[in-house]
What does this fold into?
Amino acid sequence: MALQPASGARDLNPQQVEQNQLLRQRLAEVFCRWGYEEVSPPLVERMDTLKAGGGIDSADIVRLVADEPLGLRPELTASIARAATTRLAERPRPLRLWSSGTVFESRISDEGGQRIEEKLHSGVELFGSSHVSGELELLSLLLDALEALKLQPTQGTRLLIGHAALMGLILEPVAPALREQVKEALVSFDRLKLEQLELPEALVKRLKQQIDLRGQPDHVLEQERRLFGPQPVLSELERLFKHLEPIAERLGVSLQLDPSFQPHFELYDGLVFQLVCEGTSAPVVVARGGRYDRVLKRFGATGPQAAGLGFSFCLDDIRDLPAAEQLPSADMDKVLVTYGPKSSLEKALARQQDLHRQGQTAVLELDVVSGEQEAAALQVAKGCNSFAWLSD
It folds into this structure.
C-alpha cells in the first residue's frame, strides 16, 4: 500500500518549489523597496495567540498534542501582531514588516474528517497608522506587488473592498439581539433567512437591497449616501478609490465595492479586501487583508500602538492559476559530469568541484558510463544542457 500525505497536504515537485521561490522573490523585492523589513514568526503558537482574541475560530486551527494548548498558525498576522506589541513594542512607528511561510488551516472534508490545508503565504503588516494614510499605502503596495507577479489579463483580476464601518451602518437599525444573524445572512446572500427573522418588512427590503448593492465603486457610494447621508467611512472610501482607479486601470484590475463583504476570518474591524482571479472552475482568492486594530488592543496595545493593517498573498494559489506565467528556471545551464571505465569517481568529483568554483551548476553521474554516446543520452534524460566526459 502506497503511503499518502495527510488529507489536504501535498508533495510539491522541484518545479513547483522553484516557482514558489521565484514568486516569493518578486514579492520580497517589492516589499523591501517600500521599506518593509523581513521577520520570521514561529510555525507553532499558543492557542490564545492564534485565535487573535476571538477573530479566528478554534475549529480552523490545527491543534498539537502538548503540555499546553498549542497549534499551527492558520495565517501570519496574529503572530506578527503579538511580536509587534511585545518585543518590538519600542520600535518607532510606523513599523513596516513582511514575512513569508507556510500556514495550516483545519477544514472538514466531504467525508466528515479533518482536512489540513497547507499553503505558502507572503505578505506585509503596517503598524502605527490609525488614519486613511495607512490604507492608501497598503493598497498601493498591494497593486505594486500584483504588477510584479505579472498575472495575465485573461485571469480577470479584481479587487473586492468592504468596510466594517459600512457594515455597521447597515446593521444599525437592527435590534442588537438579531444583528449577528442578519450579518450572517448578508455575508452569505441568504434572502430566505432575512425573511424568516422577526424584522419589519421595510427593513427586510432595505437589507435585501444591500445584498444586491455591489460593483462599480462610484455607483455604490452614491446609493449609500442617499441611504445614510454624509458619513466619514464613505468619504474615506471615496478617497481610496479615487487614488486606486488610475493604477487599477493601468494594470487591468477591476475595482468592486461590496458593503456586505466580510472575510472568513473575523480579524478585521475596518477596511477589508480580497484580490480575486478566475480559476479553472471557480474564482480564486489570491490575496486578502485589511485593518485589525482590535486584535492589537486584545494583545495589550494602547493609543497609537493599537493600529495595524496588512495583507497576504497565497503563492500556491497564484502558481496554480490557469495560464499562469511559467517563470524561467533560476539556473538553466546545468552540466552532467560523467566518467568512463578508465577514469574514476574520484576524478569526476574533482572535475565537478572545478566547475562549482567557476560558478557552474554541475551534477554527477555516479555510475560508470560506457562512452560519450551514452553520456549524451544521459544528459538529455536528466535535463542537463551539456555534459563533461572523463575518458581517463
